[in-house]
Design goal:
The structure is a homodimer. The first copy, chain A, is α+β, with helices and mostly antiparallel strands and about 120 residues long. Chain A has one domain: Arc Repressor Mutant, subunit A. The first copy, chain A, has six helices and three strands. The first copy, chain A, has helices at about 5-15, 20-25, 35-40, 50-60, 85, 90-100; strands spanning about 35, 65-70, 75-80. Chain A has a three-stranded antiparallel sheet. In chain A, strand 2 and strand 3 form a beta hairpin. The longest helix of chain A is centred in the C-terminal third of the chain and has 14 residues, at about 90-100. Chain A is globular. The first copy, chain A, starts with 5 loop residues before the first helix and ends in an 18-residue tail after the last helix. The relative contact order of chain A is 0.15. The mean pLDDT of chain A is about 85. Chains A and B meet through helix 1 and helix 6 of A and helix 1 and helix 6 of B. Chain A binds a DNA duplex (20 and 20 nucleotides) through helix 3 and helix 4.
DNA sequence: CAGGATCCAAAAGGATACTG
DNA sequence: CAGTATCCTTTTGGATCCTG
């Protein structure tokens, strides 16, 4: 369509399955670094293929940063939100506000561990 | 995943291809009613199947309203944003703000008629 | 542990023709 | 005009096994 349109490309990135959930997962509990396996169990149904694919996309987009510590065995990898990624949270918050206002009768799910709802 | 989670369901709705573009198209030029064909030519690459499918979804979600005037031939149909739909614009605006801040070097495409960028 | 490689099923989307 | 119906291609994603 308009592959040189920033808005369109942004929508294209964030509208992919799991993407928002991964960002929320990285934001959970005050942010900070999270391991691949940690993310994987937080998003408990995701396949390794999907997770690494999305992580690659998000890293390329500049929303997350990857740190590898190869000095130890096994290799340790961490992911965290960049400033750009953190700054995206208000967008999600805005979406949540809208949903709470207009879809309130469906109510936000009550599970404490629901990554989708876990945005303050 | 969590089909009873409002946030998740919202993301699921709006992240579908064309959905945001249709909303923007309905918002264009001060809002107001738009005909099916009008929308179709505004989103010039969309297939009739996609357009009617998305319109149905959005209507069901309560974001747009459909008006049919069968008293005349040919039948005239109009679509417009509901209050819920209009109230969604700040969410898109928030997304655009983020994109302009962080993806500014890619710049928003300059075409005046670009529906994606046409949000004030 | 942190993925990559493969294979396969399902869903999404496009093109086109048709209709009340 | 405002779609529906059909067919077919492409994409997406899940399951699983493998490896440095």
């Amino acid at each position: 369509m308009n592959s040189d349109c920033t808005i369109y490309n942004t929508v294209d990135l964030i509208s992919k399955r799991w993407t928002l959930l991964i960002l929320l997962e990285l934001h959970r509990g005050g942010g900070g670094r999270k391991r691949y396996t940690e993310l994987k169990s937080g998003l408990f149904d995701i396949s390794p293929k999907m997770l690494s694919e999305r992580l690659r996309e998000l890293e390329k987009a500049g929303m997350i940063a990857k740190t590898v510590d190869a000095s130890r065995v096994p290799i340790r990898t961490d992911y965290e939100l960049t400033e750009m990624g953190k700054d995206f949270m208000p967008v999600i918050r805005s979406l949540k506000g809208w949903a709470l206002k207009w879809k309130g009768d469906n109510r936000v799910c009550s599970k404490v561990e629901c990554a989708e709802c876990n945005l303050k």
